[in-house]
Every structure is written in structure tokens, then in C-alpha cells.
Amino acid sequence: MKLTDDLALEVSGLRKTYGSVVAVDDVSFAIRRGGSLGLVGESGSGKTTIAKIILGLESAAAGQVRACGRDRTAAARTLGERRRRAREVQIVFQDPHSSLDPRQTIGSMLEAVVRLHHRDLIAGERRQRVMDLLDMVGLHERHTAALPREMSGGQRQRAAIARALAAEPEVIVLDESVAALDVSIQAQVLNLLADLRERLSVTYLLISHDLAVVRQLTDTAVVMCQGQLVESGTTAQVLDDPQHIYTQRLRASVPGPTWVRRVSATPSILDEGGAS
Ligand SMILES: Nc1ncnc2c1ncn2[C@@H]1O[C@H](COP(=O)(O)OP(=O)(O)OP(=O)(O)O)[C@@H](O)[C@H]1O
């Protein structure tokens, strides 16, 4: 794969094993600056492992990860390097309950991140930045004093998005970020994410098993099956005209507004007896 500077994120030949399990097997994809790519696949296909390697939470056995043209495959050696990498890629997890510190108010959490990444700002400017971040995600000044448990699930996820934005990252990894929310709240947060992408030109890597979410938020998609990338293309191509049998089964197994039942209930869409 050609590595170029107008790409926000590039993953090439990535491999990760856990003992005898090959979690990620020679996976390559790229996202242009401001683009949004959906990483699709059923549970255990290797999606979160890829996210962890991109974030530096796991090391790869082979392959390369680059963000904004800079290699980040090897562990960061200095604090400055870790901070710079954090400004390149941030993550929003599925469950803000466990990803937010339960003892820290939303305001102090955001101010700490602003302070870490914008050391030149004075106190008043930092406070203003926190207000701006809250406003960007549809929260209010009163939420600065709130603890995570005093907020609704949707508000907590908005706070987690604000925390990611506080670093002004080039790329945000959204790892099942709306999966735990009620459907109506999920729609609001999806709209917020779409608006933010448009306003900030931020790049998304969206990890989801929910094809409707992938359709709404991404313009390209890759499909993972048992650690391998089996299909890639524009989101419309992949979802409307899937070429690989796995993607076809994945699509057929997802109930949606226009869902037609084509497969019987099965623990895995890979079970031969499961699809009919
Ligand atoms: N820390 C670990 N130790 C051992 N095996 C692991 C570890 N993390 C992941 N795996 C294995 O690697 C494979 C890929 O897991 P991964 O969590 O990346 O999949 P996923 O597609 O993100 O699934 P899910 O949507 O359920 O999170 C699975 O077989 C999983 O059991």
C-alpha cells in the first residue's frame, strides 16, 4: 500500500496473535483526511484489536500503523510523543459509564484534557474552551459540575465525545459508541457525530456491528471475518451489493426497518447450517 500524507490513517499488513488465536491477519486499509470508514464484522472478528493497536494499547506482531503520515507502530518512547499521538487519534468507547472517571466532574475532566494538550492557554481561556466543547456536543454550562452518574446515558456519551474533541484530534475511533444507547438517543448522538464531522473535518474510524449505523456515518467500509479483511469499498457498494458471501450473510442476519428474514437464528453467521 502506498503511504501518502493526505491520508489521516493507514493500516498495512497488520497482524496480531493471542497464543494460537490469530486475532488480526494481514489487514490493510486507509482513510483520507476528513473521511469516515466503517469497520464491520461480527463479534470476535478482530475489530477492537485493530482499534487497540491504533491507539497504542496493544502492540502488533507485524505490519504498520500511520496517522497523519507518521508511524505509530512502535510504542511511544517519550511523554511528548505520547501526547502528540493522542492529538492525532482519540477514541470514544461503547460504555461511557466505565470510560469516564466516576469521581471527576465533567468540567474538571475536560479542563484536565485541555490543559494537557494546550499548555499555552491561561485559566480563563481553558474555561472558555471547556464551555465551547460542551456547546459543541449539546451539553450546558450546568454540566460542568455534574458527575457522570448524575447524567443520562446520552449525556455521558456526549461528554465522552467532548473529551475526545478536547485534544483536537485528526482521527476519532468510535468503537460501538452508540451501541449501548436507546434507539431515540442513539439517533441524536449519530446526528451529532455527523454534524461534528462536517463542522470540524475530523476523520472517523467507526467500529460497529450495526449496518444502519455504518450506513449513516461512513463513506467507505471494510468487512472483517475471523481476523481477515474480506471485502472493502464504498459503504453503498459494500452494504447494497456485497460481493463476499460473509458480507451477504452479515447483511441478511441484521434486522432493520426493511428487514426480510432470510436466515434462521444461529450463534454465528459462519455456521454452514445457520444460513439457509
Ligand atoms: N486479550 C486477549 N487475550 C486473548 N484473546 C483475545 C484478547 N483480545 C481479543 N482476543 C481474541 O481475539 C479475537 C478478536 O477479538 P476482538 O475483540 O478484536 O473482536 P471484535 O470483532 O472487536 O469483537 P467484539 O465486537 O465482540 O468486541 C477473538 O477471538 C478474541 O477472543
Automatic annotation (TrEMBL):
GO BP annotations, alphabetical order: transmembrane transport
Keywords of this entry: ATP-binding, Nucleotide-binding, Transport
CDD domains listed in its UniProt record: ABC_NikE_OppD_transporters
Database matches in Pfam families: ABC_tran
Segment forming the signal sequence: none
Domain ABC transporter intervals: 9-251
SUPFAM superfamilies reported for this sequence: P-loop containing nucleoside triphosphate hydrolases
GO molecular function: ATP binding; ATP hydrolysis activity
UniProt superkingdom: Bacteria
Family label: Belongs to the ABC transporter superfamily.
Protein name stated in the entry: ABC transporter ATP-binding protein
Native source species: Nocardioides zhouii
